[in-house]
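Onboarding guide, step 5: your first structure request.
Type a short instruction followed by the sequence, for example:

Predict the 3D structure of this protein.
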Amino acid sequence: MSINYGSKRVVTGAHYGLRDWLAQRVTGLLMALFTVALLAQVLLIKGPIGYEQWAGIFAQQWMKFITVGTLVALAYHAWVGMREIFMDYVQPVGLRLVLQIFVLVWLVGCLGWGLQVLWRL
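The system replies with structure tokens like these:
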């Protein structure tokens, strides 16, 4: 005769835990630092800000580099967040897969568009 001291806990998901938590914090920090750098550049411009001044900010190679890094961080940040939302709240596996694929394609498209806009300046 065996004694059952409770049911075994069923854990679902892919066990991303700490990695996702850390990724959200690191990408959030990168986006915050980019915002501060961009805000500092905008505040240093004298007079009204037009297209030439705005394009001048992003024409510098170092600014393009950190902008690309920020775009990648933003896409990854959004992916981790949306994946977690879908894993927590969308129970039908088929619907969850469709939503995840849609979000992934959307984010890759937005990233590509952002890179195209940035390098066309």
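Each response can be followed by summary notes, for example: The mean pLDDT is 89.
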